[in-house]
Design a protein that fits this description.
Blueprint lengths: L21 E6 L6 H12 L3 H14 L1 E7 L1 H13 L3 E4 L1
Antiparallel strand pairs: 1-2, 1-3
Helix pairs in contact: 1-2
Length: 92
């Protein structure tokens, strides 16, 4: 027989993420115009015009910009629609 005592049980609180947050990222290219990118963000991502303009400037100068965040199932059709328009977008 072992003389070791069993360690007391500890309660562990686990934080659950009920909704995983994903990010739709738009990347810069040398092909599409500012107006085309802005119009695409307004139509596909439902941005206000000013928000779309700001995103296009960030994409131009930084190379990429998070244009939307949310559930993957909501972002996937947006990513596909942007890609169909010739824009480079991914979900991260």
């Amino acid at each position: 027989m072992s003389s070791q005592k069993a360690a007391p049980k500890k309660e562990v609180l686990v934080s659950e993420r009920t909704k995983e947050e994903n990010h739709l990222i738009l990347f810069n290219d040398d092909v599409n115009t500012f107006d085309f990118v802005i119009d695409s963000l307004v139509e596909v991502c439902e941005h206000e015009r000013q928000q779309a303009e700001q995103c296009s400037i960030i994409v131009h100068y930084k190379g990429k910009c998070e244009v939307k965040k949310g559930e993957f199932t909501k972002l996937k059709p947006m990513q596909e629609a942007l890609s169909e328009r010739g824009l480079t977008a991914s979900i991260e």
